[in-house]
Write a structure and sequence with these properties.
The chain crosses the membrane at residues 33-54. This protein has 132 residues and is an alpha+beta fold. 30% of the residues lie in helices and 30% in strands.
Length: 132
């Protein structure tokens, strides 16, 4: 899961991907948000991800986020939370940025064309690098 804002505060959006233990995608979501601070966006996306997990009956929860706010959530009773570097979070980053241009929420249960190459790279374990 990941969130994005155009500034802080600014127009926000968030997205998440649900994968099984073999990295197959079970579904994903994007949600455009109004004006908010970045820390609000990442807390909202964590809450949404947990709600979707329970709604669809997936009981094994492991949240990955590049946000220190989310990683420090007290979540040990029903799941696991871990930090993932931005380079390993490219699919979710693409989804959250996609949400910035939407007017309504969207959910998919298959890979959409605008991020399919990132999903394939993630599934195959390809490394990604960030150059500043």
């Amino acid at each position: 899961m990941d969130g994005a804002t155009l500034s802080s505060p600014g127009v926000g959006g968030c997205g998440g991907v649900f994968q099984n233990c073999r990295a197959f995608m079970n579904g994903c979501f994007v949600v455009p948000l109004g004006q908010m601070f970045m820390f609000e966006v990442v807390l909202i996306v964590a809450s949404m991800a947990i709600n979707y997990v329970w709604k669809y009956g997936w009981r094994q929860i492991w949240l990955e986020s590049d946000s220190s706010y989310v990683v420090q959530l007290p979540f040990s009773r029903s799941g696991q939370v871990s930090h993932i570097c931005r380079e390993g979070n490219q699919v979710m980053d693409a989804l959250s940025k996609h949400a910035l241009g939407l007017e309504i929420d969207a959910k998919w249960f298959s890979t959409m064309s605008f991020f399919s190459m990132l999903v394939d790279s993630d599934y195959m374990g390809r490394e990604s690098f960030r150059f500043s």
